[in-house]
């Protein structure tokens, strides 16, 4: 069966790799629509032509893209991805970065489309809303860690799960003690993965792992007390599930996102040859180490926000987006990213204790958090 896809965030790392999977498996997938910011109009035009898409969504450069794609419907504006996610299809791949991906996730679910979710912020900012709308097998993870957990849990009972163990590469600074002098270029130089700038910096602070703990809680309905993270520099074991009999099931593959992307797009079938397997003719050394939470406090902060719940995870996520951008712009130091987020969480702990009911509530909470975070950044610069 050929599956009809909509790819949100087609010019980003996940979107580009998803389109490569489609090109390599034309009998399995076709692309109905793509969306992106539109900041790379030539690439958008090239993708749309190559995959013969019927609809394109962008937030900028719409006129240039329309001129290059006669006969293709081009939807522009801030809600383009949300509108397109609601078009009936087999799978919507949400590869948008940031909490702006929540609206499209909800639109896709409400349209009864299956969602391959690479936008972790959808669950961090609006986890209760998303999971309340998702039917069984409608929300499928794309992150390598959550794909690993998902694969290890297939056929198992949650009641027999002792622990979910997310693995973390540790980023570029796992062995560096002086983090005050970290530059943007150093933070963007990930030792294992090639990702977008926001995700890469989140990996450097281990904020990414904190977001993933919250995401895992919602995806698998496992309490935070049973979700942990461990450093695994080789990034071959993508995550593990420990069961109450003492057994641990781990999913292993070379660090390549085409495996988890293809599994979510093709589920319950696997896409043959999606990525190269581990070469068992060679020697391998895989190491694991506990995380130094004193040097990397983001995970403890994320767990705190997740356990309290309500609007606090949305505050946590929005504050981090502001802080990461401030670091990229040279306005705060690397350690101040997490310090800024922590300060915002502390200041908004009381006001964020009402559970958001819908997208508008989440947006309002995030807007307040962004304003407080911006004030914290300005104070740090003063």
Could you please describe the fold and organization of this structure?
- This protein is an alpha/beta fold.
- The chain folds into three domains: 3-141, Rossmann fold, CATH 3.40.50; 144-300, no CATH class; 309-382, Orthogonal Bundle (Rna Polymerase Sigma Factor, Chain: A), CATH 1.10.1740.
- 44% of the residues lie in helices and 15% in strands.
- It has helices spanning 13-24, 41-51, 62-68, 80-85, 102-110, 121-133, 144-153, 184-187, 197-205, 207-220, 258-266, 298-308, 312-328, 335-348, 359-381, and strands at residues 3-8, 29-35, 55-58, 73-76, 91-94, 114-117, 139-141, 161-168, 227-231, 237-243, 248-252.
- Strands 4-3-2-1-5-6-7 form a seven-stranded parallel β-sheet, with helices on both faces.
- Helix 6 (121-133) packs antiparallel against helix 13 (312-328), helix 10 packs parallel to helix 12 (298-308) and helix 13 packs antiparallel against helix 14 (335-348).
- The chain is globular, with a radius of gyration of 20 Å.
- The termini are far apart.
């Amino acid at each position: 069966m050929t599956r009809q896809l909509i790819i949100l965030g087609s010019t980003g790392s996940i979107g580009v790799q998803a389109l490569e999977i489609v090109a390599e498996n034309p009998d399995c997938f076709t692309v109905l629509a793509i969306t992106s910011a539109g900041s790379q109009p030539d690439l958008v035009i090239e993708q749309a032509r190559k995959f013969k898409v019927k609809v394109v969504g962008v937030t900028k450069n719409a006129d240039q893209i329309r001129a290059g794609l006669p006969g293709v419907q081009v939807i522009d504006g801030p809600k383009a991805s949300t509108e397109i996610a609601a078009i009936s299809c087999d799978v919507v791949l949400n590869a948008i970065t940031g909490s702006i991906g929540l609206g499209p996730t909800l639109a896709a679910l409400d349209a009864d489309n299956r969602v391959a979710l690479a936008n972790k912020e959808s669950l961090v900012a609006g986890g209760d809303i998303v999971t309340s709308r998702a039917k069984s097998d409608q929300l499928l993870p794309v992150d390598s860690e959550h794909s690993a957990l998902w694969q290890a849990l297939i056929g198992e009972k949650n009641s027999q799960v002792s622990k979910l163990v997310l693995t973390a590469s540790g980023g570029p600074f796992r062995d560096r003690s002086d983090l005050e002098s970290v530059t943007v270029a150093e933070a963007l130089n990930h030792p294992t993965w090639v990702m977008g700038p926001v995700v890469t910096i989140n990996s450097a602070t281990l904020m990414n792992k904190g977001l993933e703990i919250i995401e895992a809680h919602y995806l698998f309905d496992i309490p935070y007390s049973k979700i942990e993270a461990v450093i695994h520099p080789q990034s071959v074991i993508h995550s593990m599930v420990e069961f109450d009999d003492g057994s641990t099931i781990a999913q292993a593959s070379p660090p390549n996102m085409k495996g988890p992307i293809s599994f979510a797009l093709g589920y319950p079938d696997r896409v043959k040859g999606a990525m190269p397997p581990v070469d068992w003719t060679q020697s391998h050394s895989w190491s694991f180490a506990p995380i130094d939470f004193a040097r990397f406090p983001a995970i403890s902060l994320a767990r705190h926000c997740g356990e309290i719940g309500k609007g606090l995870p949305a505050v946590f996520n929005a504050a981090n987006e502001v802080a990461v951008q401030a670091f990229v712009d040279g306005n705060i130091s690397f350690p101040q990213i997490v310090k800024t987020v922590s300060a915002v969480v502390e200041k908004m702990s009381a006001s964020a204790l009402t559970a958001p009911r819908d997208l508008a509530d989440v947006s309002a909470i995030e807007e307040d958090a962004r304003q407080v975070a911006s004030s914290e950044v300005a104070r740090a610069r003063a």
